TrEMBL record:
Residues 123-157 form a coiled coil. Signal peptide: none annotated. Keywords: Coiled coil. Residues 76-115 are annotated as: Disordered. Residues 99-109 have a biased composition (Basic and acidic residues). It comes from Desulfurococcus amylolyticus DSM 16532. It comes from the Archaea. The keyword Signal does not apply. This is Mn-dependent transcriptional regulator.
């Protein structure tokens, strides 16, 4: 049986001869290959040795441990006296004391090495928890993007509803009684009306709520109120609003209005 622990022997062997394989170390120690492999793996997990090609080499940490174990070898005072006296039991006593000390140190070293798998298990658990957290975070990011897209869609829909509501809004009573404006701008060109109203344009034209005059679409309430201002003196045209001026020009183009004697505008069918 070896006086020194296998752990210490492995460190000494690799310190003197680097890059030995598990099988080579097993042959040197005279132990099974599996036993040598187990010792080397524990040392590797603890950072005392590391792989180098097909073999192992001792690390800086391993050399520090080897130096510490070497310094801690002690000889009892009784054996020292016996050795000085040259007694026959001197060598056996020293060997016995060495074995006890080395066994204690071996137990301490083995305990340090056995802590490595527990540490690795804890690290593995933390890694798994981190991966699970990352997975859940990615799932939340996908859900947030989906909610954001739905919110944008709802906002666009709300804008369309408000826009349509503005186009079909009611006004207060007019000078001739109760009335309403079908469209937000009571005078607009055909293209603008089609863009804003779409299929509703034909419906409102059939119902008489809107009137087509040349290239213009005019709200019937606005049109009826504007006709009440006729005849309009040519000198007072500048006082009309921009919408009324636009409508007046288009009515002249469509021969619905004439300039009588160069002084005033009159409706043709009035």
């Amino acid at each position: 049986m070896q006086a020194r622990s296998y752990t210490l022997r492995v460190l000494e062997i690799l310190n003197n001869t680097p890059s030995l394989s598990s099988r080579e170390i097993a042959e040197i120690l005279g132990i099974d290959f599996s036993r040598a492999k187990e010792i080397l793996e524990r040392l590797r997990y603890s950072g005392y040795v590391e792989k180098a090609g097909r073999g192992y080499i001792i690390t800086t940490r391993g050399r520090s441990l080897l130096a510490e174990l070497t310094k801690q070898k002690t000889i009892s005072p009784q054996n020292t006296v016996q050795e000085k006296q040259g007694g026959p039991a001197s060598e056996e006593a020293v060997s016995s004391d060495k074995s006890v000390g080395e066994k204690r140190q071996e137990g301490k070293t083995e305990g340090q090495i056995q802590q490595a798998p527990e540490t690795l298990d804890h690290v593995s658990l933390l890694v798994k928890q981190l991966e699970e957290f990352s997975k859940r975070l990615r799932e939340l990011e996908v859900k947030i993007k989906d909610l954001d897209a739905r919110l944008t869609s709802l906002e666009n829909f709300a804008k369309e509803v408000v826009k349509h509501h503005d186009m079909v809004q009611h006004t207060g009573s007019q000078s001739s009684g109760e009335g309403q404006y079908v469209i937000e701008t009571p005078v607009m060109n055909m293209n603008e009306a089609q863009s804003r109203l779409g299929s509703l344009l034909d419906k409102y034209l059939l119902e008489g709520r809107l009137i087509r005059i040349g290239t213009l679409i005019v709200d019937h309430v606005f049109y009826e109120e504007f006709k009440k201002k006729f005849p309009i003196k040519a000198s007072e045209v500048s006082k009309l609003s921009n919408l009324e001026k636009t409508l007046l020009n288009e009515m002249r183009n469509e021969m619905l209005v004439i300039l009588y004697a160069g002084k005033e505008y009159r409706l043709v069918n009035a």
